[in-house]
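#dry-run=false #mode=assembly
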Amino acid sequence: MTAVADMPERRSEGRMVRSGALVAYAAVGLSLAAILTLSVGATGISLTSLPRVLLAMATGNDAGAVAREQLVLIDIRLPRLLLGMFVGAALTVSGAMMQGMFRNPLADPGLIGVSSGAALAAVATIALGNGVAAPWLRPLGAYALPVAAFAGGLATTLVLTTAVQRHGSLSLATLLLAGIALAAFNGALMGLVAYASDDRELRDLTLWMLGSLSGASWPKVFATTPFVLLVAVALPGLVRGLNGLLLGEAEAFHLGIDVERTKRLIVLVASAAVGAAVAVAGIVGFVGIVVPHLVRLMAGPDHRVVLPASALLGAILVLIADMLARMLVRPAELPLGVVMALIGAPIFLHMVVKRRVAG
Amino acid sequence: MNTPRSLALLICAALMIVAPVLSWSAAAADVTVVDAGGRRVSIADASRLLSIGGDVTEIVYALGAGNRVVGVDTTSQYPPEALKEKKGVGYMRALSSEGVISVGASLVLASERSGPPEVMKTLKATTVPLVEIADDNTPDGVARKIRLIAKAIGAEDSGEDLAKKVSAGFLALDERRARIKSPVRALFVLGVQNGRVLAGGKNTSADAMLQLAGAANVAGSVTGFRPLTDEAIVELAPEVIVAMRRSSTTDAHDLSQLFELKGIQGTPAGKNRRVVTMDGLYLLGFGPRSPDAARDLMALLYPELTAKGGDATR
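#status=ok
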């Protein structure tokens, strides 16, 4: 697992040519995956109904069979597609940034507390939502869980970075260790909540931990839009900083990079993006760690390629996994996180082993 | 607006005369019910039902509407053919919006416990009516569930009969219970995992059932299904263990494990090896069979009561 460290020496001219094409291929692949996602589902309604639905929506004449097609295409599949792309892109980009910043191939957003904080808040909402916490959570209705998860993730990151800060500087080694400690503490609190919940809440809790896009809706799409914009605006400015950090903090500083500002911005962007993704879909593991590695194996460690290609590949992987989750046991549905790991892990293993042999 | 309505009525009337067997399709004259969530739901067609929740499915079948069911969830274990013959929409708390829609039901009957909440919200926004059924573990609650479902599916007469029968069953149970002089101390064991007993405390269906059967729940000081330590079990000193039988074959193994536990061995129930097992959904489902289940449990807990001419009330 020294892929990141190995890469610079192994980078060749041939790979550089391929890396530009990789982003283009991934963009085409994402378009195909998006069309496929809209075309298949348990109801058997396909994309060929779309013109009819759009016409009905434009004329306001949405009655009868069109109403059903409109509901499935516009209110169920489309928000699910958009949120799926966001979740995939947010998790993989954050994973890539964490691995770049910590210079550790195993780094994931859990290290800055987001995932465990969001999980703790979500678990507490599930278990206490009908009891102690009901007066505060009731006004939020169905959105109590995502709102709590997002707030929990961000709050944990804030606590962690504030605690670790010394004289205005963020020590990465301390952040790494403190992050592990905080995740363990959050895990213990989650265990405590799980112990206090009844069997039905336990079942909900387990299902949430396995991740799902089944609660996708337009309000959630609108709520995540600011985070999509934040990531899109912040990423280009982070590429140089991340490439500099690959060499080490001191080296990055000598290259004229504002290291402290870069680290802070990375933590902010990653925690906001992951917080929003976890709030929407629960815990979807694997994709954040693995996709950036796949991209590095294919195109080298340059973040100009790693970040956009990871975002696109992450979105594709989530869309495909979600499609399988929806279709395999229809009309029921499998947890997204499970399907993701089931298809992704063997592919990754194959690529790593093949690369070892070839190299 | 007026002509089609009267035309529909005319057709309905004609149908009623021509084919009384098909009288349920005459529910075309919209029925309006107020469901557990307080929503007014208007039902035009109850010919294709999706039933979510073990108790809901059981009631639908008991009302003789099993042939109208097109889909059920995984908790609908009784009658067994429901899960075998109908489309399965998965676990009731992990439903999929499109999956539920794809079943093509004209009416969705969903237990209050169904989820996730966002999916329920989407489903309520569809044109297919969705009636939420309360999750109620009381004798009156069971009768209310039956009446609501019966009204929604246009089977009010058989619903009234069934509700009355269930209420009478619970009433007869009250009389029998009054004859119990000292309640037996019972512990409901949901499962034994890794040598730890998971017991049913208060606010559980198990607690409600023990009370109906006239037993004293020794674990009444804890809430929900909770693991108990061996010491606590010795202290609680249950005279009988009540457990669920998952299937007819596996139970012997589980129970032998139960009596190997030091905590259980130290109780009167353990010393006398006194354990009562019943089918899980029958015992805890709180559907139309629950008065019978409570009566059966009472008969197992108080064999002497039934022996002394307890059948007089039946």
